[in-house]
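Q: What does the assembled structure look like for these inputs?
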Amino acid sequence: METTNPDNRPKRLTVKLMAEKLNVSTATISNAFNRPDQLSEARRRWILEECKRHGYLGPNAAARSLRTGRTGNVGVMLADNLAYSLTDPVASEFLHGLAEVFDQRQLNMLLLSSQEDDEHRSRVQEAMVDGFIVYGWLKKGRTYDRLLQHGKQMVAVDFDLEGCTWVNIDNYEGARRSAEHALTKPPSNVAIMGLRLVDTDRVCRIRDHELFNETRAISVRRLRGYLDALEAAGYNVSSDRIWSTPTNTHQDAYQAAREALTSNPRPDLMLCMSDRIALAAIQAALQMGLRVPEDVRIVGFDGIPEGANLHPSLTTVYQQSAEKGRTAARIFLGEKEDRNVLLPTCLLVRESCP
Amino acid sequence: METTNPDNRPKRLTVKLMAEKLNVSTATISNAFNRPDQLSEARRRWILEECKRHGYLGPNAAARSLRTGRTGNVGVMLADNLAYSLTDPVASEFLHGLAEVFDQRQLNMLLLSSQEDDEHRSRVQEAMVDGFIVYGWLKKGRTYDRLLQHGKQMVAVDFDLEGCTWVNIDNYEGARRSAEHALTKPPSNVAIMGLRLVDTDRVCRIRDHELFNETRAISVRRLRGYLDALEAAGYNVSSDRIWSTPTNTHQDAYQAAREALTSNPRPDLMLCMSDRIALAAIQAALQMGLRVPEDVRIVGFDGIPEGANLHPSLTTVYQQSAEKGRTAARIFLGEKEDRNVLLPTCLLVRESCP
DNA sequence: GGTCATTACTTAATCATTTAAGTTCGTGTG
DNA sequence: CACACGAACTTAAATGATTAAGTAATGACC
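A:
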C-alpha cells in the first residue's frame, strides 16, 4: 500500500502521490482538505476516506505555509528568559489571557525570548509566525531592528514600541491612588520597594544610580505615581529610601525587604511595586516580630490571587493581567478598533494596609 | 533600491533576487548564511553586508523548513486547555524546566492544547514542529492517533503513551510515604482529597463513580499509595471518605475542602493530592475556627513554593516539576540514554502535619 | 437550438529555499 | 609536464503544497 523509494524505504506521502493513487488531480485533493465548496460532497468524503486509508494525514505544514504565507502561529516574545516568565504570576496570567483568545481562534503560540543569539541569524527571522506579541520590554538592538523591519503584525505589551500598537495598564494612576490611600494614616517613615528601577542585577537602593527611563518604563511610572502622592501629602522621599530588586523573585524580594526593614529609620509604610515583593516584605516583617499592619503597613501591586488568602491579606493594586492578554490578542487579530489601550487598575484594600 | 512588482508594490526579497542583485548564485547566498566553510570569509562578509543593506533579513523560515524538513520548534501539547495550564503552578514549573533546556538549544516551544477541533484537520498535522512533548494526558481519539502515526519524536510526561518514551514521578511512593508519615500519629478519621479521580466535572465523592484508570493514572497511583499505607496501618477508608475535584483550581479545591470538613464525622487528617487543594483545605479549616495541625492535620502533594511561607506551612510531597521538564527535554533531544525516567519525590515535613 | 451559468474538475505556475553534483582555476607533487 | 586535489563557486533538481485560469459537461431558459 505504501510507495517505496529505490532503496525500498517507504516514501513520505504527498498530495502528488495521493493524486496518482486516487487518479484525481492534486488540486482536488487540496480542495477536499481546504475548500469543501469546490467539489461534490460525495467525492470529498471519498477522497478523505481514501487518504486516511493510505495514511496521508493531510497537507504538509511547511509547504502550505510557504505557499499561503501564513503559519497559524503567533510569536510571543517575552522580555525575560522564558523560564523566568513562565513562573512569574503576572506574566503567566497574561499568557493565560492570550491563550484564551488564540486557542479559540485556532492559533498556536510560539514562545520566544527576546534574547539575542548569533551574529547573523535571529530568532525573529527564523520564527514561523504571522506576527508578534512583544511582552514587557525589548532592548534596542538587532532583535529590535528586525522586529520593526519584518513588517508583520505586532502588538507591544507593558511598554512602548516605536510605531506599534500597545496595551498597558495605568501604572501611574494605580500607584498614585494606592499611595494616596496608604497616606490617609500618616506614616512616619516610608520605603519604596521598586522592581527593576535601575539597570543592575543586584538588590540596591537607587541613590547613585540612574533610573531606567524609556523601555522599562512601567516601574518608573509607578514610582512617579507614588512620589506624586507623597509630595501632595507633604512627604519628600529621598532616593536613599527607595530600593530596587533586579527580578520579581521571592529571593530578591525577600533580601530587599530585609534590608529595608533593618534600615534606620525603620519604615512603617512600604510601597511595593509587585505583590511578590509585598508578600516577601510581610514575611520578613513577621519573622522580625513586627506586626502587620500595626508596626508596618504594606501595599503591593498586581493583585495576584495569593494575596487574598493570607493573613494578613494584602492590600494591593489589582491589574487585569489576563484582560491585558485578551486585549492584546484581539488587537493583534484586528478585532478591536482601538489602538493603544490603557487598562484601569483597581485598589484592593485589605488587611496589610487597611 | 527595492525591486517592485508590475503594480509597483515592493516585492518581497528572496535569495533569488539577492543573487541577481549581487551577481552571485543563490547557492552562495544560502551558504553565506548557513555554511561559512563553503565560501571565502571575505565573500561571506561582503554578501551578508550587502543583504543587510538591501534589506534581505535572511532565509524564509517556511521555505527552509520545507526543504530541510526541520522547523526548530517543539510542540508542547498540554492536556488541559492552554489557559488553565499556564496558571497551574505544577504545569508552569514543568514548562519552566522545558524552556530552560530548549531555550539554550535555540529551539522554540509551540504551545498546543490537545483539544480536538475540526473533523478532518488536526492541530497535530498542521503544527510546524519537529516533535512533541505531550504533557499530562491525552484522550484516545483522533489527536491520539495522529500523534502515534506521524512518526516524529515524542515524549510523554506524567502518563503513559503507547510506544513512547515517558517521564514521570513516583506518584505511588510519594503518596504512600506521606501517608505513612501522617499515620505516625494515629488519626481518628481520614479524608482523601483527590484530583480528577473520576470522569466528571463536579466536586464529588467517588462512591458510585468509576475511577479513571489508564490515562489519568497519576491520581489513581497516588490514591493507591495512600490506601496501601492506610491499610498497612490498619485503616480502611471507604469511598465515601474520598473526594475528587475536577480541576486543580482554588475554587474547586475550596469547595471540596468545605464539604469534607463539614462532613460527619469530621476528618482530623486530610491527605490532599495537590498543594492547591491542601492550601484551600487549610484556609477552609482556619475559617471554620479549626486549628491546623491540632484539630486537623493536612498533607499536600507537589511542593509548590507557596506552601513554605504560610502559617501553618504545608507538609507535602515535593515533586521535581522543573526537573521533569528538563529531563523530558533532554530525552526529546536524544541527550539522555535512559528511556522512561521515574523521578523520586521527597517528603517535606512542615507545620501542617508535623 | 443557442446562449449562459453553474458545477466539478484539471493544468500548470508559484512559493523560497537547500544541497548534491558539476565546473573552473590555481597549486603542489612525482 | 601530467596529474590529482582542494577551494570557491554555479547549476539545477528537489521540497510539498495552493490556486488562478482553463475546460468539459450539464441543465435552465427563452
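Chain A touches chain B through 59 residues (CB under 8 Å).
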